[in-house]
Write a structure and sequence with these properties.
The chain is built from ten helices and ten strands. By secondary structure, it is α/β, with parallel strands linked by helices. The strands form two sheets. Strands 6-7-8-3-9-10 form a six-stranded mixed β-sheet, sandwiched between helices. Strands 2-1-4-5 form a four-stranded antiparallel β-sheet, with helices on one face.
Length: about 260
């Protein structure tokens, strides 16, 4: 018997003005699964993630997390959830962005604590303990009192991951989290994600790191022109190259994975 999806996206549509960006997208993610989304720029990958977290309101279809519609009381086009309800739902879908989005005037520890205090309503002592635990888990126990300006890009992104995971979300959304980093800093961030994957964290990851997608994913989804063009276990998807011209053209840019 198949597990009930933790995240269920059905016939999702989203347009910006007259430009359709997502076209009847269907995608399920089960608890503990790591799903990576790859595809050409402008294909709808980031918009998909932003709809899951309701940073973008979707036009049609349904996004459900644990059976509850995201953003709307029933489904797209219906009544939107209130801000308090939305904040609670967003806490279930931790998101890490391309740009680090840390508060510049707060230390690493304070950045991680903020959501714990304001959204989760944790007491100060408990919030501090959780923040220090996760900063230690991402290798930054020696940087708890540092401001973002005192951290490298890789360190800032690891604080961003700690901040998202500290909220104990049901699913973690990662949007091109290495794209703003210098090449030598990429692996330190991806190693943290690999550790979370081994620990069973449910993740939906948009990435251009194809080798990482192959190594760390249970499933890879290829999104192009606003649709799911192919998906499967990493080896299955790579075997699909011969039958999918768009996938073949995309992967041909990555010589290490195309041969």
């Amino acid at each position: 018997m198949l597990a009930t999806p933790l995240l269920k996206i059905s016939r999702l549509t989203k347009s910006f003005g007259t430009n359709p960006v997502l076209k009847l997208v269907d995608l399920d993610v089960t608890a503990g699964e790591v799903v990576t989304v790859i595809g050409p720029s402008g294909g709808g990958k980031t918009t998909l993630l932003r709809c899951v977290n309701f940073l973008e309101a979707y036009d049609g279809g349904s996004i459900k997390i644990d059976g509850r519609e995201v953003g709307y009381v029933d489904n797209a086009g219906g009544k939107k959830r209130g801000e308090v309800d939305l904040a609670a739902m967003r806490a279930e879908t931790g998101m890490v962005f391309q740009s680090f989005n840390l508060f510049p005037h707060l230390t690493a520890e304070q950045n991680v604590m903020l959501g714990l205090r304001r959204v989760r309503k944790k007491p100060l002592k408990e919030a501090k303990e959780i923040a220090r635990h996760w900063l230690d888990r991402v290798g930054l126990s020696h940087k708890t009192g540092s401001l973002p300006s005192e951290l490298s890009g890789g360190q800032q992104q690891r604080v961003g991951i700690a901040r998202a995971v500290a909220m104990d979300p049901k699913i973690l959304l990662l949007d091109e989290i290495t794209s703003a980093l210098d090449p030598e800093l990429v692996n330190e961030v991806l190693d943290v994600v690999r550790t979370l994957a081994r620990d069973g964290m449910t993740m939906l990851i948009v990435t251009h790191e194809i080798a990482f997608a192959r190594d760390a994913s249970h499933r890879i989804v290829f999104v192009a022109d606003g649709t799911v063009s192919a998906q499967g276990k990493p080896d299955e998807l790579m075997a699909e190259v011969a039958n999918n011209e768009r996938l073949r053209n995309f992967l041909s840019r990555f010589s290490a994975t195309a041969h």
